[in-house]
Amino acid sequence: DHAYPPETEPFKADQSFPGKGGSVDWRKIRVPSGLMVSDDKYFKDSESFVFYVYAEVISPDDRQATACVGSDDGVKVWVNGALVHTNKADRALKPDQDRVDISLKKGRNTVLVKLIQNFGQWGLSFRIDDPDDQLKYVLP
User: What is the distance between the alpha carbons of residues 50 and 115, in angstroms, rounded to a whole number?
Assistant: First the structure.
């Protein structure tokens, strides 16, 4: 439940933060569809850490949508600065484990996802259900 700087400060791509093993910063990662991250190449110690993902979603209009989240272990999701989902799970990753109703505004929408890793393997998946393929994901 501790709020680290990515939760309390505006996003800046060149920002660094004090981390478990020293300074940490934002890194650009590309995924083919939605987001799924599960790889120990990012961390020397893969136990007891938090991991943040930030992206922006461009919507052609104001709309209600469904965010689909999977996590190993706990997860929190913010859309446009508002906390929309919390799950203090201790589980293995499966895409779309949690489905969350969200509101998107016309134009740019910010998404911040926090993974809370306990021990063992870790992973995170996130996408917004978009059957008509109208949303665009961009990096700031």
Answer: 5
3-state helix, strand, coil in the chain (%, to 5): 5, 50, 45
Q: How far is CA 60 from CA 22, 64, 70, 103, in A?
A: 40, 12, 26, 13
pTM over 0.70: yes
Pairwise CA distance, residues 87 & 75, whole Å:
5
Q: How do residues 69-128 score in pLDDT, each as one tens digit? A: 999 999 999 999 999 999 999 999 999 999 999 999 999 999 999 999 888 888 889 999
Do 49 and 72 meet the contact criterion of CB atoms below 8 Å apart? no
CB atoms within 10 A of CB 1: 7
